[in-house]
Amino acid sequence: MSENTVIQEIKCMLSIEDALHQYLGIKPDRKSNAKSLNIKCPFHNDRSPSFTIWPQSNTWKCWAGCGHGDVINLVSKIHSFSNEDAILLLRKQLLIERKWPATVYTTWINNRKLLTGFKETKKQIVFMLLEIRSLFKIVLKQVTSFEDIDLLGDVYHTIPLIEKYLEELESREIEMQIATVKHLLPFLNKWRENCE
Ligand SMILES: [Zn+2]
After folding, report:
1. How far apart are the CA of 67 and the centre of ligand 1, in A?
2. Percent of the chain scored above 70 by pLDDT?
3. Domains present along the chain, CATH in parentheses
4. How far is the CA of 45 from the centre of ligand 1 (A)?
5. Cβ neighbours around 187 below 10 Å, total
6. Of 53, 83, 86, 128, whose Cβ has the fewest other Cβ atoms within 10 Å?
C-alpha cells in the first residue's frame, strides 16, 4: 500500500472530532448541520473558543496561532510526534495495514518511550555540536598559512565529524539516534562542566 493511499485512508477513517475525543477526551458538541464548529483550543490557554473544526473537509485551525491542518498533523501535534510517526501510529491503530506485525509495533512503541526520555538530551547535544562547529568555523577563517593548518589539524578533522553526528541525530533510525546520543553524552557532560 503506497504512503499516499495510507494517508487518504487515515483522513477518511478518522475525523478531527473523533481524534480530539480519542486522544484528549474532548467531545466537541456539533449542531447537526453546522458547517463548522468552534471549541476551546487544546494547545493554548484559550478563554474563547478559537479552535475551528470543518467536518466536511476534516480540517482544523487555531486562530490564535497554534496551527492548522488535517487530522494527521493534529495527531502529531497532540503527541509531539513527527507527521511520519503519527502516520505510523494511525495506520496501526486504524488497522489500515493488518499485516504490520505486532513485534514491529511493540519495538516502535518502546523506542518512542526511550526517545521521549532523551529528547531533551538530544536537543542539548545538537545545540552543543552547533556551538562547537560555529566556533571552529571562526577559527578556520583566521587560517592564513600552511603552518596554521598544521596547528589546526584537529579542528579540520572535527568539523566533518560534527556533521556526521548531526546527520545521525536526525536519522530516521531510532537506534542510530540512541547510539549517537549515548556516544556523545560524556562530551555533553564535560561541555556543561566547562560552561559552568
Ligand atoms: Zn491554540
Report:
1. 7
2. 83
3. 3-93 (3.90.580.10), 102-195 (no CATH)
4. 7
5. 14
6. 83
Give CA angle at 165 (119, 141), nearest 5°: 120
Interacting residues of 189 by C-beta distance below 8 A, sequence separation 6+: none
Q: Angle, nearest 10°, between helix axes 102-141 and 153-169?
A: 150
pTM of the entire structure?
Answer: 0.53
Strands 51-54 and 37-39: antiparallel
For residue range 15-68, list pLDDT tens digits in order: 999 899 988 989 888 776 788 999 999 999 999 999 999 998 999 999 999 999
Among the listed residues 58, 51, 57, 63, the one whose alpha carbon sits nearest the alpha carbon of residue 18? 58
44 alpha carbon – ligand 1 mean position (Å):
5
> How far apart are alpha carbons 73 and 118 in whole angstroms?
23
Answer yes or no: are the C-beta atoms of 158 and 167 closer than 8 Å: no
Which of 6-20, 45-59, 124-138 has the highest mean predicted lDDT (pLDDT)? 45-59
